[in-house]
Amino acid sequence: MSTVIALLHEGAKNHGDLAYLGGKTGDTWQTFSFKEVDALSSAFAAALLKAGLKKGDHAAILSEGRPSWVIGEFGILKAGCTSVPLSTRLTEEELIFRLNHSESKALLVSENNLKKAAEALKTIQNKPLLILISDKNPSTEGTAEKLLYYEEMLIQGKALLAGEEYQRRLQEIEEAIDRDDNVTISYTSGTTGNPKGIMLTHRNYIHNADNARKLVPVERGWKSLIMLPLDHSFAHTVGLYIFCIVGMTMYFVDAQGGPMAAIRNLPRNLQEVNPDVLLTVPALSGNFMKRMQGGINEKGALIRGIFNAGLRAGIRRAGDGYNRPPFLQCLWSFFPWALANALIFPKLRSVFGKNLRFCIGGGALLELKQQEFFNAIGIPVYQGYGLTENAPIICTNSAARHKFGTSGVVLPDLELRIMKDRSTECTMGEIGEIVTRGDSVMKGYFKNPEATEETLQEGWLWSGDLGYMDKDGFLVVTGREKALLIAPDGEKYSPETIEEAVLSTSKYINQIMAYNEQCRFTSALITLNTEELLGSIKNQGLSPQKDEDLNKVLGLIWEDLTSFTRQSGHSSIPGQWRPASFAVLGSAFDEARGEINSTMKLVRHRVRDLHMDRIEEIYRAGAGEFYTEGNRKVIKDILSLEVT
Fold first, then answer.
1. pLDDT tens, 184-226?
2. Of residues 342, 390, 331, 383, the one with CA closest to residue 361
3. Phi then psi for 417, rounded to 5 degrees?
4. Count of alpha carbons within 13 Å of 276, Cβ hemisphere only?
5. For tag attachment on the chain, is the N or C end more exposed, with fewer CB atoms within 10 Å?
6. Cα 162–168–173 angle (5° rounding)?
7. Cα dist. 149→75, 109, 110, 138, 631 in Å?
8. Residues 282, 433: Cα–Cα separation, whole Å
9. What average pLDDT does the segment 281-291 reach?
């Protein structure tokens, strides 16, 4: 297969009437077979040509995951155009930038995003066609005068393909498509600066999908509920292309009613679909883990005791997943694990339906604590690593070969090096920049030759991420080069290493950003797991009216923040990089404020800028002096609102 269009044709041939896509209309699930998706996308392509799009044009998609998203993109490609997937979480200003920069001639939009899209189009000089790809027809008041409808375009396209002209045009376009033509222009999330448009080709996607599936065995007929947005490159490659090769069905979380409705619908959708495999990101799996732990804590001492003993035993029995623990350790831990596995773990697993075998995690580094937790209860989350610039999968763990705390083994037919500098390769175990070379590597950044030249050199993609290869052949990603902590003497360290250590040992800390920009010590901005903290506060009878009690609460948080230093697995973090003070923030890092992006990664410069007053307060007080007015105010607010 040389193009993703040929891949879809092959999927229709091999899997025929097997369901490829599933989405909810009203209260009913509707599925589309591989043959139907191939036929419907051709009809949509014909309608796009009739509407005036030409080979080489760009068409953007702003929608939650749904069957029409996938059919729409394949239609865009069959019309000889390039797709521009956009996050539904973009602000109006961000949307305007991407539409202008990509020179999009059409915008496919869902009903939940129509209003934002219409507002954005008011300030765009060369307005793209606006195409509503929802089943619903919402109010169009205030939108552009010309609004095309997906369902009507499918009817029109089928009629056009009944004649020879449009059949011939689509055939000619497809035959003219080259492996190195663009499939997508995918914009970076902008965590380290202005977004860049990543050009990914047919060659990139075919190579990545074909090689990634060799590392993670999946089977024809398996199902998945896609919880991630399809503009996310991980979900895009796995869902559209790997599932098409293998013959798997992807259902989409019911987003009728908007983002909050999708969150509410997720638990029910999991039970309805009963997925075999899930794609996730650390923030999502972390929420599941915390909810499970919170539910166990409410069940009383007996259940809590069985669960905790079983969890510890399950973690001991697994070791690091690759190097198995001694036989006697497995034997000694068998009974507490077996008891929990009989009485408690099945109920936790049932949250995901009846059939879940495993999850694959991407998007950001997955805490070791999460990997061990989910493996112990019987639904392992296998960590992977990739970059959109690599289409995106670089390596992954799997049931066949995995090691906790790593990002897995490198894809077949993809070269990977760890570089100390632009000419010196690191030795095994030595941290350096991760670079890759192969057919998965992007063509470049759209209209940005300077950034392309900096990132691509002699075919090698310089990721900007740091890591090392361990003795067992697993890649360990340690952080982002451009996000490094910097000491006054210029020495650097990865903030993710510290943040993972804190989150894997902490009870009270929900989110953390380590900070050091040539400061005399490292600090941390933290948000709290208030439910867990309030439980301790109530048990100790602390009062918001007493100053000494406020200080005691801050002391509890400090002990919790530094607990990782007393754990053998994290004790190697040098003292100068361990947080010496902290600021408690009154609310969680929020996407609406730009503090996290659509994959829940920290946008560090944004967090820094928004909370610079609290950072300055930390350094005015000095190391270890965390009884600041800002911290006391946040804690007092929490106590006043929650403690009764």
1. 999 986 544 568 999 999 999 999 999 999 999 999 999 999 9
2. 383
3. -130, 155
4. 11
5. C
6. 125
7. 14, 10, 10, 11, 53
8. 23
9. 86
- Model pLDDT, residue 139: 57
Sign of the dihedral through C-alpha 133, 134, 135, 138? negative
Question: In angstroms, what CA-CA distances link 625 with 518, 583, 622?
Answer: 19, 10, 6
What does DSSP say about strands 581-584 and 492-493: parallel, antiparallel, or unpaired? unpaired
pLDDT over threshold 70, residue 479: yes
- Residues 261-280 have pLDDT tens digits of 998 999 999 999 999 999 99
3-state helix, strand, coil in the chain (%, to 5): 45, 20, 35
Locate tokens 């996050």: which residue? 87
DSSP 189-218: --TTSS--EEEEEHHHHHHHHHHHHHHS--
**Tell me, what's the pLDDT at 191?**
45
pLDDT confidence of residue 219: 95
CA triple 24-189-260, angle to 5 deg: 35
Q: Write the DSSP assignment of 453-503 as a string of letters.
A: HHHEETTEEEEEEEEEE-TTS-EEEEEEGGG-EE-TTS-EE-HHHHHHHHH
E-strand ranges in 110-226 read 129-132, 147-149, 182-187, 197-201, 223-226
Nearest to 148 by CA among 278, 174, 157, 319: 157
Using CA atoms, how far apart are residues 389 and 464, in angstroms rounded to an integer? 11
Q: What is the mean pLDDT of residues 123-143?
A: 78
User: Is residue 570 very low, low, confident or very high in pLDDT (cuts 50, 70, 90)?
Assistant: low
Is residue 150 within 8 Å of residue 131, measured between CB atoms?
A: yes
pLDDT of residue 565: 86
Indicate the average pLDDT of the chain: 91
Max distance between CA atoms of the chain, in angstroms, equals 83
Query: What is each CA distance from 450 to 56, 196, 424, in whole angstroms?
Result: 23, 11, 23
Decide if pLDDT at 355 tops 80: yes
- SS3 assignment, position 593: coil
Task: Report which residue type is found at 375.
Answer: N
Which of 467, 462, 281 lies closest to 384 in space, CA to CA?
A: 281
CB atoms within 10 A of CB 528: 23
- Coil, helix or strand at residue 437: strand
Give the separation between CA 390 and CA 371, rounded to whole angstroms.
24
Q: Which residue has the higher pLDDT, 217 or 491?
A: 217
Task: Check the CA dihedral 126-129-133-135 and report its sign.
Answer: positive
Which residues have CB under 8 Å from 43's CB, separation 6+?
Answer: 75, 153, 154, 156, 157, 158, 160, 161
Q: What is the pTM of this model?
A: 0.83
CB burial class (10 A; 0-12, 13-18, 19+) of residue 103? middle
| Beta-bridge partner residues of 382 | 360
Task: Show the tokens assigned to 184.
Answer: 């997508």
As a dihedral over the C-alpha atoms of residue 78, residue 83, residue 88, residue 94, rounded to 10 degrees, the angle is: -150
pLDDT grade, residue 643 (50/70/90)?
A: very low
Contact in structure between 522 and 491 (CB atoms under 8 Å): no
Q: CA Rg, the chain, in Å?
A: 25
Q: In what order do the strands lie in the sheet with 523-528?
A: 509-515, 523-528, 581-584
Nearest CA-CA partner of 434 in 466, 410, 472, 412? 466
